[in-house]
Design brief:
It is a single chain. The longest helix is centred in the middle third of the chain and has 22 residues, at 180-201. By secondary structure, the chain is α+β, with helices and mostly antiparallel strands. The strands form five sheets. The protein has an eight-stranded antiparallel β-sheet with strand order 15-14-11-6-5-19-20-21. A five-stranded antiparallel β-sheet has the order 7-10-16-17-18. Helix 1 packs across helix 2 and helix 4 (80-91) runs parallel beside helix 6 (125-133). The chain contains eleven helices and 21 strands. The chain starts with a helix and ends with a strand. The chain has two domains: 3-172, Thermophilic metalloprotease-like (3-Layer(aba) Sandwich), CATH 3.40.1830.10; 180-396, no CATH class. The chain is globular, with a radius of gyration of 20 Å.
Length: 398
């Protein structure tokens, strides 16, 4: 692992991703194996003028101990100060930087999946609410670790696997460009242009068709696809995901029908969900089956009224850098930006107009899973019922 590469990744997170401002408090999370990048981000943030960098610790091994031994009626309890911290960050208009990537794959394989589904940590309801409210400038970036590298490249020796993963992540994050910030600005413009073309058609629904998939996602009258960056509620720009290759919107939570097969594995807080198929009726996920991990996802989809409904639909074309690598990363940040996806749970207010604000799905969860790829075509359905090609073989047709 190159110290220079870690330093440049930290600078990308602080300056381009979260766009940390002088005087801001910066929230972060740290997990085993991510310490070098966390420390580099803290240094970059303080150099940028941060007032304070607040690092919270999450250890999946501690969670495993809880899942194995804690009383059944305590598993859903979350310390109230976790929520208080999230609300305080929002009130202070803080920045937040999260790190993605597996740190202990397979750790929960011997844990009762029903119990695992009840403990949603490190996900926090209040943090989801603050994110959706637009009060934070935030980003999520990948953080290669030896454990993650071994999962992605099991045929390589440990040091070689980690070096290969860092090489891929650097390419995906455009750190191999002379000026990554300029490169991301250009990619942002491309994504905004793609979103504008889709929005110009004012589709009533999107129809996904492919192996195991025949799904119609209804859209709100003011559903608006966005991409290439967001702004805080006061106009401060930031890039919520680095990398980002998607244009996404908020669908009608009452109008999803059909069946969809996930095209990539989903890592859900340490539980790997493979072979996932979901059937929707009247907007709700009424049947969830998977080869592994289905009980965990079923439990998450039952936490509240909105958890089984869609809060996001995202389109990803083949021009991005992730899909071209033909690598499954077993991480939502990277895999969701390789292919089109949907999310059950909370919807993004910026993905719909003010007239439909009350119709945007609300939930304590937001779980993305990948449903697209070269074999899955996407059609836009007009109000009259005609279908127009949108993504065919991964290429834009609008």
């Amino acid at each position: 692992m190159s110290e220079d590469l870690v330093r440049r990744m930290a600078a990308l997170a602080v300056e381009v991703g979260a766009n940390v401002q002088p005087g801001q408090v910066v929230g972060m999370g740290c997990r085993p194996g991510t310490e070098p990048l966390v420390r580099a981000i803290a240094e970059a943030a303080y150099r940028r003028g941060a007032r304070f960098v607040d690092v919270g610790w999450y250890d999946p091994h501690v969670k495993r101990a809880r899942l194995r031994h804690a009383a059944e009626d305590t598993l859903e309890w979350v310390p109230p100060w976790y929520g208080e911290r999230a609300r305080a960050l929002g009130e202070m208009r803080a920045a937040n930087i999260a790190l993605a990537g597996a740190v202990a794959p397979g750790l929960f394989d011997d844990v009762d999946p029903a119990r695992a589904g009840r403990d949603r940590l490190p996900s926090i309801r209040e943090f989801t609410e603050v994110i959706m409210s637009g009060r934070l400038n935030w980003t999520v970036i990948p953080c290669p670790t030896p454990a993650w590298a071994a999962l992605v490249h099991p045929d390589l020796a440990p040091e070689e696997a980690l070096a290969r993963l860092w090489e891929q992540v650097a390419h995906i994050c455009r750190l191999d460009e002379p000026d990554p910030a300029t490169a991301w600005a250009a990619r942002g413009r491309e994504l905004k242009d793609s979103a504008a073309r889709v929005n110009a058609r004012r589709f009533d629904a999107l129809h996904f068709r492919g192996p195991g998939t025949d799904l119609v996602v209804g859209l709100l009258p003011t559903t608006t696809f966005v991409g290439g960056g967001e702004t805080r509620d006061d106009g401060l720009p930031f890039m919520p995901n680095l990398p980002t290759e998607e244009v996404f919107a908020t669908p009608d939570p009452l109008r999803t029908e059909g069946v969809v097969a996930s095209t990539r594995p989903l890592d859900l807080a340490g539980t790997l969900i493979t072979g996932l198929t979901v059937r929707f009726a009247a907007g709700r996920a009424v049947e969830i089956t998977a080869d592994t991990g289905q009980e965990v996802l079923r439990a998450r989809a039952a936490v509240d009224e909105g958890a089984a409904r869609l809060g996001e639909v995202a389109l990803v074309d083949s021009s991005g850098r992730i899909g071209a690598l033909d690598t499954v990363f077993y991480d939502t940040l990277l895999d969701e930006n390789a292919t089109s996806h949907i999310a059950i749970g909370a919807g993004y207010p910026m993905g719909a107009g003010a007239e439909d604000a009350e119709r945007v799905n609300t939930s304590a969860i937001h779980i993305d899973f990948m449903i697209g790829g070269p074999e899955v075509d996407v059609f836009g359905r007009t109000a009259e019922g005609a279908e127009v090609p949108v993504l065919i073989g991964g290429d834009w047709r609008v």
